[in-house]
Amino acid sequence: MTVTTTEPAPLQPDASRPATGFWASYGRAWIRTPGSALYLLAVFVLAIISISVLAPLFWTSVGLLVILIGLPLGVLTLLIARGFGVADRFLLLLTGLPEIEEPEWNRDRSDSTGFWMTLTRPIRNAHYWLYLVHGMIVSPLISTISFALTTVWLSVGLGGLTYWFWGSFLPRGGSDGRDGEWGRFVGDYLPWLFGGWSSWSVEVTLYLVAGILFTATMPWVLGGLARGHHAVARGMLGRWHSDELAAEVRAEAAARGAAVHAEDVALRRLERDIHDGPQQRLVRLQMDLAALERRAEAGDADAAAELAREARGHAKAALDELRALSSGVAPPLLQDRGLAAALDALAAGSPLWAQVEIDPAIDRAVSQEVARTVYFVVAELMTNAVKHSGATAATVRAALRRSTAGAPPTHLDVWVVDNGRGGAVITTGHGLEGLRERVAGLRGILVITSPVGGPTSVGAHIPLAVAS
Exposed end of the chain (fewer CB within 10 Å): N or C? Predict the structure, then answer.
């Protein structure tokens, strides 16, 4: 017997975790300093342009309200203010600070349409007014202060470190050409420190000390100014908690409308299919039975037998058509044994050779509403593969998606892939459009990849947290 012993590997530092400590933090601050400096200089230019554009437009629109021209001009002003705010948020990306999320610009209901509703939408949205106040008042004020401090720190820091070079080119007084007034004054005032020094040496030394101090503190000062801008922008230009609620309401309304429309289309289609298929055959069956009765009363046994055979054929055809139509309706198997068993039975009953890959945990994760929709989508896709694609094989795959290992599932991903001729597209009023609306009714999306020549892949991605 051979026993292999493996020494435990020495612990290695986690490369994904940033180093801690003063110097590590200081180094990271220096990395962000060039971007912060560029932002603080650029946002001042943006602020001056914004106040120069927004202030005249806004007050002109106020003055023209009495003749109604001010209303569209005011809306235009708010839209321009939004543009300046978006530009400010974009420039903030230079600082390396977290990105500020986009606000919800449209808080109206999905059915709120029309010219006046669209025209006055910016006026009824508080975000537009905050963007206007930010671009016309707040940003010019804080940008002027931050621009002044940034200019001082950059000029003193960089200028002080390099004064020994560029200062020699400045015109100077004195017999040696290198004596300056303020350097001589400092040397005379502090003889114990600069006794015997030339004015030029005093100036270079003091500039160098100032440059070192201002350069050393530059990451903190410029970083603090950038964080101040970021805090103001997050409060005035960012997304609110109420935006999430408004977006959720709009999404729910859109999903509900899509679900209602999809159900209406499906019912109309089922009604048409029943009328054109089984109903016609049952009418023919009724006529054949009436003829059979007359032949039987007349004693014509051969004709009666022939009519009986035809009637049996029509009954079988009607039954087959009803079975085909019922495949799009939730079967008792779905209610009794769950989605996994229903999809497996659906694939087994298909004329195609079908491979099934289903996560057995989906029955515990999905609701009945999701299960019915998924079953209908898969049944419709399998029917399309048989009727229209010329496929000989298909794969049905259903899996749960998790954000992290061991976490509750967040999405159900269902794929139907066939080896048909491809070229499937979503067309208004056709089957794939109805499937997309059904999936949208659960806040999900339908993805179709169908190049000419195949294969065709259709995926339904449904969020479980919202749908359940």
Answer: N
C-alpha to C-alpha distance for 387 and 391, rounded to whole angstroms: 9
Q: What is the dihedral of CA 297, 301, 303, 306, to 10 degrees?
A: 120
Cis peptide before 455 (omega within 30 of 0): yes
Distances 449 to 243, 381, 454 between C-alpha atoms, Å? 34, 13, 9
Strand order in the sheet with 353-358: 353-358, 393-402, 409-418, 456-463, 445-449
Under DSSP, the state recorded for 100 is P
Q: Tell me the one-letter amino acid at 70.
A: G
Asked if 209 contacts 133 with a C-beta cutoff of 8 angstroms, the reply is no
Cβ neighbours of residue 386 under 8 Å, at least 6 residues apart? 350, 351, 352
Whose CA is closest to 95, among 21, 53, 41, 52?
A: 41
pLDDT tens by residue, the chain, 468 residues: 333 343 444 444 454 556 667 788 888 888 999 999 999 999 999 999 999 999 999 999 998 888 878 889 999 999 999 999 999 999 999 999 999 988 888 766 655 666 777 777 888 888 999 999 999 999 999 999 999 999 999 999 888 888 878 877 777 655 544 445 666 667 667 777 776 677 777 778 888 888 899 999 999 999 999 999 999 999 999 887 766 666 666 656 555 655 555 555 556 666 665 655 666 667 666 776 777 667 777 777 777 677 677 777 767 666 666 665 555 555 667 777 888 888 888 888 778 888 888 888 888 888 887 888 888 888 888 887 887 777 888 888 888 888 777 778 888 888 888 888 887 777 665 667 777 877 877 778 888 888 888 788 888 888 886 443
365: nearest Cα among 265, 464, 229, 461: 464
How many residues in the chain?
468
Nearest to 387 by CA among 291, 297, 456: 456
Angle (deg, nearest 10), helices 301-326 and 278-298: 160
